[in-house]
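User: Fold both of these, please.

Assistant: Here is the first one.
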Amino acid sequence: MSTVTFGIIPGYGEKLHAALGYSAAVRVDDRVEISGQAGVDDDLNLPDALEDEIVQAFENVERALATVGASWPDVIHVNSYHKVAPGEDVIGEDVNRVMAEQFRLRLDGRAPIWTETGVTALGLAGMRVEIRVTAIVGSRS
């Protein structure tokens, strides 16, 4: 029988759990899935700068993973969603640069698979990025 553990991030995660009834992470044995993480602070505020929002989203992924005993070096798959204006046909190089910097900083040399998707709307007004990952605890070695 599998062991299932749900994780709720202290701060903004508790607020979203109370308001919308979902958890930030689930661990089934050694496999971890997290819900998409925005670049918000604990009061659900977004930074003005896109780079700061992406960095905060990466921080929030780390917080979600930690609720179930995982971390960035356990990550095997990343989905990122980036708001683009209607009619735009590419996600900007500024986004890709920051994403790549954060991968290098946090993944300790691991190169997970990555799907990057442009969207016209995300869950909160003003959001420009959302990051969701899958991890296998202990797979980094």
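And the second sequence with its predicted structure:
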Amino acid sequence: MIDTTRSAEEEAAVAAAADGELRLHDPAVRASADGVRLFDPEFVEVGASGRRWTYEEMVAALPTLHGGADGPPIETSRLRGALLAPDLVHLTYETVIAGRRARRSSLWRKGDGDTGWRLYYHQATPVPEA
């Protein structure tokens, strides 16, 4: 029989990454320096549109993207996570933004020192309407 319980280390790491992911869905965080600090300097995203985003592009556009103060909210469900290595968490979840569904996958990497967990990679895949 396989033990499927998580260690305290895994629980804490997944919780920290999930907290960061959900904070990035908050319009106030997206428009602040706190939001910028949640991105790893080597961040890359492949958005639901297929566009590739770099750290610099994302930081510049973050306050104006979906979930921002003037846009539709990000509805999140089915958030799950797994610790892949001591410094790497994989999250998966679904979102609905302005009626459009997407499945999402994020990698969060723990930095050295006080940097904490940062979003290293994100990909969104649109879900066709049923």
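Residues 13 and 83 are 7 Å apart (CA to CA).
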